[in-house]
Sequence to fold (567 residues):
Amino acid sequence: MKVLVAIKRVVDANVKIRVKPDNSDVDLANVKMAINPFCEIAVEEAVRLKEKGIASEVLVVSVGDDRCQEQLRTALALGADRAVQVKTDFAVEPLGVAKLLNAIVAKEECGLVVLGKQSIDSDNNQTGQMLAAIGNMPQGTFASDIELKDGELRVTREVDGGLQKVALTLPAVITTDLRLNEPRFASLPNIMKAKRKPLEVISPEELNVDVTPRLTTLSVVSPSERQAGVIVSSVAELVEKLKTEAGVL
Amino acid sequence: MTASILVIADHNNEQLNAATLNTLQAAVELKAKTGSLITVLVAGGQCEGVAQQAAEVSAVDQVVLIEDDTLSSQLAESVAPAVIALTNEATYSHILCAATTFGKDLLPRVAALLDVSQVSEIIEVVDADTFVRPIYAGNALATIKSSDAIKVLTVRGTAFDAVAATGGTAELNRFIVTHSNELSRFVSEEKTVSERPELTSAAIIISGGRGMQSGDNFPMLEKVADKLGAAVGASRAAVDAGFVSNDMQVGQTGKIVAPDLYFAVGISGAIQHLAGMKDSKVIVAINKDVDAPIFGVADYGLVADLFEAVPELEQSLS
Fold:
C-alpha cells in the first residue's frame, strides 16, 4: 500500500510572530521555518507503517514555492521515499490543497493519506476532511492511534469528552493529533541520503486543478495584549483580592 | 424563497451541546445584517428531544430534524451527505457549526462537497461575508472576506455569548434522507465521566501543568474545583506526560476557554497554552518560577510552591 503524506512549511513553533506595520499579513522575513509539527507526526506515522511492512512506499507532497523543498528534503531524511512539490507562488487555500492532493492520490493510487490535523500558522483544520470529501474516502480526524485490522483501519480519535474508536474502509484519510507518536530526529547519514532521493516538481495545471482563492484577507492585526497584573505575597492576599478587587469569588 | 442561515446542532442525541447556543449568537448577528431566518438542523438517531429543545431556543425560527439510525453516531461520512441533501431542498446563505471536535470534523467535509471554502473558528461577524478569525495560535487576528455563494463557518464559542435556551417557539419539520454509510463505522467510545462542569462552559477553571509532577496530584486541584464549582483543565505538557486525559487539554490544539476566573497551577505559559485561555476575564498564576511567562498574562501571580499553596487555597475557601 502506497501512503501519501502532505507537509506544510510554516513558521517554527517557538517563534513569536509579528504583524507587518501595514497590517497586510504576518511578517515572515528572516524567521525560522520548519515542517508544521502535526505534519511531522504524519511523516513519522507513515514511516513507521513502512517499517512495519504495511506501507510499500511513502510519498511526501508539499504545495508551495521552491522554499518548501527544504521541508520535503527533511521529510525524505526522516524516511519518506519520494517527494512531490506542487509549485505555486501564492498560498493555496485548504480546498485547493485538498483538490491537488486528491489528484495525486488518484494518479498514484495511494491506499492511505496521513495529514496533520491543522497547521500552526493558519490554524484552519480543514484539508484532511476536504480531501476525504472530494475523494469519497472516510476520515479519521484527530487520531491518537491507528491499527490495521481485518482490512479495516481502526482509528482512535481525540474528541471532546474523551476518545472515540472508528473503523474505516481503505483508502482513507487520517489527520494526526499530538499523541499519535513522537517524531524521530533525522540522522546525518539519512540527511545525506535524502539529497539523492527523487523530488518531482509539478504544477496545479498539470494536475488539472483550479486553485483560485475564494477568500481575501482584508487585514491582519495584533490582538490586544494582556497586561501583567500584580504579584501577591500569600494565598490569603490572593483570595482577598479575588473576592473584593476582582469580584470573581 | 429567500436564503436562510443554517446552524448545525452539536448534540449527543439527548442534549443540545451548550456550544450550539454560542453559535446561534453568531447566527443572530448574521440575521441582523441579512434579515435571513435562522434554521437549526438536528441530525442524529432517536434525537427528537434535542429538536424540541432547539425549537425552544429564543433565536431559532425553524428546526429541521433528520432522524435516522444510520446517523446515531453522527460520523461525518453520514452527516455530511444529509446536510448536502438538505441544501438541495432549501437555499442557505450561511452554514454554521460550533468549533467543537464534532464541528471541526464535519464542516470541512460539507464545505468541500459544496465546493466552497470554509472560514474556521470565527470570533466576530463583520458583515454577511466578512469575518474575523485568530491565526498563529491567536497571536494575530485576520479579517477574511469570502466570495463563495454559501459561507461555511465554524464558530469559536468563547467569542459569542450564549443565546437564551428558552422562550422560542420555532416550527419543527422532519426531513427524510436515504443514505447509507459504507465508508466508516463507529466502534466504541470512552467518555470521561465527571460531575464537574464542562471546560468550555465553566465559569471557573483550575488547570495544572508539568509542575503538578504526576496525575496522582491532580485530586489536589479537584478539591479546589469542587469548592468553587469549577472545571479542571491541564496544559499540553501535563497531557503529554500522561498525568491526565487528552480531553482536559486547554490550548491552541485543545480546548479554547474563556471563563470568568482561570487558575494556572504549575503551568509555565507556553504560547500554545496561552492561546487557549488568554481571553479569560481574570487569570491567576501559581508557580514557583518567578520568570515563568504565565506571570506576564496573569492578573494575580503567586510565586510559591504549588504543593503548599493549593492546599492552603482549598482551606481558605471553606
Notes: Residues 19-34 of chain B form the longest helix (16 residues). The longest strand of chain B covers residues 184-191.
